[in-house]
Design goal:
With 206 residues, this protein is an alpha/beta fold. The chain folds into two domains: 2-61, no CATH class; 69-200, STAS domain (Transcription Regulator spoIIAA, 2-Layer Sandwich), CATH 3.30.750.24. It is built from seven helices and six strands; from the N terminus they run H-H-H-E-E-E-H-E-H-E-H-E-H. It has helices at 2-15, 19-35, 43-68, 99-118, 140-155, 168-181, 192-200; strands spanning 73-75, 78-83, 86-92, 126-133, 159-163, 186-189. Strands 1-2-3-4-5-6 form a six-stranded mixed beta sheet, with helices on both faces. Helix 1 (2-15) runs parallel beside helix 3 (43-68), helix 4 packs parallel to helix 5 and helix 5 (140-155) crosses helix 6.
Length: 206
């Protein structure tokens, strides 16, 4: 159990701002409270609990700030804001809608991404697409839409940084699409802060 606790602590430190990792770690700690409460007295677990509270505060604060910013575009499962030359494109899952409706949302997002691609670089020079709260598996229509979104930014040499959840299947899927449709200007990340730094960098600094 000590080894598991150490792994959990390292995972949270690595993925810093991932809301899904924060939720997973909190569930992990609740399990320890029931099974082996003595583990929570370990120095690594004390640090983990403190880190989780800090990260949760940062995540809540960031989301509140995002909702206060004027939206460039928004729809049934996405919201886009633009700040400092970067478009922040957040997508979340909608388990209450059908696959067909979800695919329609994805097609709608293609139009938004095309608009971002057409903006002058003085307004939008890159996009950070946050998929941490999005569905981790896609149907063929959504897959085609995501591919088209990445390709339109690649065509105008604008950066597309995609941050995924801690789900391996999502990271692998996104990485594959990025390599194929945005090989020069796209990159997938498991860390929001790393994606933000890379998307904000001027083109040419890899």
């Amino acid at each position: 159990m000590r080894r598991e606790a150490t792994i959990a602590y390292a995972a949270v430190q690595h993925t810093a701002s991932s809301s899904s990792m924060i939720r997973w770690s909190r569930d992990f700690i609740r399990g320890l409270q029931q099974r082996e409460p003595a583990c929570l007295k370990l120095p690594s677990m004390v640090s983990l609990c403190e880190s989780l509270e800090t990260l949760r505060g940062h995540e809540v604060g960031r989301r509140m700030t995002e909702t206060k910013k004027p939206a460039y575009a928004e729809g049934g499962n996405y919201r886009v804001t633009v700040e400092g030359g970067i478009a922040f494109f957040r997508v979340w899952k909608r388990p209450d809608v059908s696959r067909e409706v979800g695919a329609a949302f994805a097609r709608e997002m293609v139009g938004v991404m095309q608009s971002l691609a057409a903006e002058p670089t003085s307004k939008v020079r890159g996009v950070l697409m946050d998929l941490r709260d999005a569905t981790t598996t896609w149907g063929p229509v959504t897959q085609a839409a995501v591919s088209e979104m990445f390709a339109c930014l690649e065509a105008v040499e604008k950066r597309i940084a995609v941050v995924t959840s801690n789900e391996t299947v999502q990271l692998l899927s996104v990485s594959s699409v990025v390599r194929k449709f945005a090989p020069n200007n796209g990159r997938a990340f498991a860390s929001y802060s790393s994606a933000e730094r890379w998307s904000s960098a001027r083109l040419g600094s890899r």
